[in-house]
Amino acid sequence: NTTYKIAVLAGDGIGKEVMPEGLRVVTAAAKRFGITLEFTEFGWASCDYYAQTGNMMPTDWKAQLSGMDAIYFGAVGWPDIVPDHISLWGSLLKFRREFDQYINLRPAQTFEGVRSPLADRGAGPIDMMIVRENTEGEYSSVGGIMYEGTPNEIVMQQSIFSRRGSDRVLKFAFELAKTRARKHVTVATKSNGISISMPWWDARAAEMAGQYPEITWDKQHIDILCARFVLQPQRFDVVVASNLFGDILSDLGPACTGTIGLAPSANMNPERDFPSLFEPVHGSAPDIYGKNIANPIAMIWSGAMMLDFLGGNDSDGQCRLAHDAIVAAIKSTLATGPHTADMGGNASTTEIGVAIAALV
Amino acid sequence: NTTYKIAVLAGDGIGKEVMPEGLRVVTAAAKRFGITLEFTEFGWASCDYYAQTGNMMPTDWKAQLSGMDAIYFGAVGWPDIVPDHISLWGSLLKFRREFDQYINLRPAQTFEGVRSPLADRGAGPIDMMIVRENTEGEYSSVGGIMYEGTPNEIVMQQSIFSRRGSDRVLKFAFELAKTRARKHVTVATKSNGISISMPWWDARAAEMAGQYPEITWDKQHIDILCARFVLQPQRFDVVVASNLFGDILSDLGPACTGTIGLAPSANMNPERDFPSLFEPVHGSAPDIYGKNIANPIAMIWSGAMMLDFLGGNDSDGQCRLAHDAIVAAIKSTLATGPHTADMGGNASTTEIGVAIAALV
Ligand SMILES: CC(C)[C@H](C(=O)O)[C@@H](O)C(=O)O
Ligand SMILES: CC(C)[C@H](C(=O)O)[C@@H](O)C(=O)O
User: Fold this and answer.
1) CA of residue A193 to ligand 1 center, whole Å
2) Handedness of CA A96, A100, A102, A104 (dihedral sign)
C-alpha cells in the first residue's frame, strides 16, 4: 500500500482559512477509499514568512519539498507587505518553473445551483478544460530597463517559447481531447498581431494536430476567443493556450459559468520527476480574510484533482473513486446548500467543509 | 470653410460592402451640417492588391496619404490568399505605427434594442471607453528564432514599452475621464506575472494618477479584469491598457454589451501630425462576404467618430453635431429597426445604410 506524501502550504489570507477545509475533505475521502496520505505542513511560501525573514522561502525549499508527491497550496499574496510580483515570483512561479509543472489544467463547468451571469443558458451546459502552458512564454524574467529614470526610459521584456515547451502542452491537450466526448481542441493565438512568436506557435499547433486525425481543432485569436467565451461558451471542449492567454481564459471561463470562486487548478509535471501542485484559482482575498466566510470549494476541488493525479492513469483505482466522490459531494452541496455568502447563503467556511466531508 | 480630405480604403471582404454605407451616412451628415468633405478612394491595402503585386500597398503609400486629414478604413484580411500577420502588418499596423496613431479609442455601450448576452442587465447600463495603446508594447517586430527547424528551436519576441509611449496613453485616459460623469480610470496590468514591464507600467500609472487628484482610479490584473467585464461591466468608466490587453478588452467589452458587430474605433494621432484612422473593430468576415448581409453600423459609427475628431476640440461645432446626429440615428435604428440578420432581422447592408442616412 503506497503512502502519498503531501506538502501543505496554506500561504496567505483566505489560503489559511480554506486549507483546513480542503484537508478535512481530502482526509475523509482518503479514509473512505483506503488511501494512505502523509501531510507535512510548512509555514513558508507566505508573506508572513517574508516579513520575518526577507524571503518568501528558506534557501533549502527544494530539498524540503523534493521527496513529496504533491504540494497542496492555498493562496499567496499580501500586497500591503510584499508587492505581488515579489511574493508570487518568490513562491508559486518558482514551483511551477523549477518543478517543471508545465501543465496548468483548469476546468470551467456549469453546475446546478450556480447561476451563470450569462443569459440563455438554455444553450446547453458549459464544460471545458483549459490547458495552460505553465513554465515559459510571456512569463519570462528576461528583460530590463534602459535610460532608467529618464524621459527616454525604455523597458523590454522577452516572451520565450521553446519547441519542447510548446509541443508538450499541445500534445497534452490533444491527448486530453481523446478522452472526452466532443474530441475538439481550440488553440488560442494572436498571430495576426504578435508577429514572430505566435505564427510560430500556430505552426507547432498545426503540426501536432496532424498527428491526431481523430480530433477536430481550430485556432482563434485571443481577442475574439474571449468574446466567444461570453457569446457561445458551450461550444468549447479543450482549450490550449500560452501562459498569459491561459491565465486570462482560466479566469474568464469560470466567470462565464458563475464559478469564479470555485475554480480549481492542477499545476502538473506529468512525468512525476517533481511534485505537482494543486491550488484554487482564486487569490488570498485580503478584503474578506479573517471572517471565516471564504468559499472553500475551490480548495476542496483542487484536493480532488490532487487525489486523481496521485492515482495515475488507473481510471478504476481508489484515487479516482475518491476524486469522483468529492466532486459529487461538491455538486450536491452546490445544488442544495449550505452556501457561503458569495453564493447567497450565510454558512461559514468551516460549515461548508464539514458538510462536504460528511457527504464524502 | 475648411475642406477635410479623407482617404477611403475599403480593404477586403465585408469591408467593401459596409464602406459604401459608411460613406452614404457620413456624406448625408456632412451635407446637413454644412461640412465640406473630399473623399479619395484607394484600391490598395487589400489582399486583392497583394495578389496582383506581392505587396499590400504601393511603395509611396505614405506620400499618397500624408496630405489627408483622416483615413476611413474598412477591414483587411483574406487568409486564403495572404496570412493575417502579413496582410495586417503590411497595412493597418503600419498605419498605426508610422502615422503614430497612438490612441485606439473604443467605446462599449449597451443600447436599447440590442440584447446583452449577460443576464440581469437591471444592474444598469454599460458605458465604458477603452483606451488602447496602439503603437508599441506586445506588438513589436523585434525577436527571432534560434535553432530553427530543430527540436531545440526557441522563439523570442520582445515587448517594448517606452515612458513616452506609456505616459501619453495614460494621460489621454485621465484627460478623457475628466470629461465624463463618473471620472474613474481602470488601468489594466499583469504585474504579478509579467515581472519586468508590468510593474514598471504600474509605476507610470501611479505617477500619472498623482497628477489627477480629481479622478479616482484603480489597477486590475488582466485575468480578473476580464472576469469583471462579465460580472460587473456597469462599474467601468475609462479603461486604459497596453496594446495587447487593449485588443482583448475591446473585443470582450462589446461582446458583453451585445454589440460586437457594432463596435467602432478611432486610431488617433491627437497632435494631427499624421492622418488618423477610423475603422470598425470587426474584421473582413470572409464567411459572409458577397451576400450584402453584413451589419454596416460599426462602419457608420466609426464615420461619426471621424467627424467628431475632424472638428477638433470644438464641442459646439458642426462636426460634433454631425457626430451626435449619426449616433442618434444609429440608436433609433437599433431600437426600432430595420435590422440585419446578426440582430435578428432580414434587412440588407444597403437597407440599413439608407435607413440611417434618411434619419440623419
Ligand atoms: C487584426 C489585428 C491585427 C487587430 C489588432 O490586434 O490590433 C485587430 O484585432 C484590432 O483589434 O484592431
Ligand atoms: C498570481 C498570478 C501570478 C497567477 C498567474 O498569473 O499565473 C494567477 O493569476 C494564476 O492564474 O495562477
Assistant:
1) 6
2) negative
Task: Answer yes or no: do A141 and B197 touch at CB < 8 A.
Answer: no
For B119, which of A117, A201, A248 is closest by C-beta distance?
A117
* Segment A288-335, tens digit of pLDDT: 999 999 999 999 999 999 999 999 877 679 999 999 999 999 999 999
CA A140-A141-A147 angle, 5° bins: 120
Distance from residue B47's CA to the centre of ligand 2 (Å): 40
Q: Which ligand 1 atom is at minimum distance from the Cα of B89?
A: 3
> Would residue B147 be called left, alpha or beta, if left means φ above 0 and alpha means ψ between -120 and 50 degrees?
left
Distance from CA of B254 to the nearest CA of A (A): 8
Query: What pLDDT, in 10s, does the model give residues A210-238?
Result: 999 999 999 999 999 999 999 999 999 99
Mean pLDDT of the region B161-183: 98
Instruction: Please check whether residue B216 is in contact with residue B190, taking contact to mean a CB–CB distance below 8 angstroms.
Output: no
- Fold classification of A1-109+266-360 is Isopropylmalate Dehydrogenase (3.40.718)
Cβ–Cβ contact A231 with B under 8 A: yes
pLDDT digits (tens, 9 = 90+) for B248-293: 999 999 999 999 889 999 999 999 999 999 999 999 999 999 999 9
CATH number, domain B1-106+261-360, options 3.40.718.10, 2.60.40.1180, 1.10.150.530, 3.40.30.10:
3.40.718.10
Angle, CA A199 vertex, CA A270 and CA B74 arms, to 5°: 135
CB atoms within 10 A of CB B127: 17
CA-based nearest distance A195→chain B, Å: 6
Collapsing DSSP states into helix, strand and coil, what is residue B295? Answer: coil
> Between 3.40.50.720, 2.60.120.10, 3.40.718.10, 3.40.50.300, what CATH number should domain A116-257 receive?
3.40.718.10
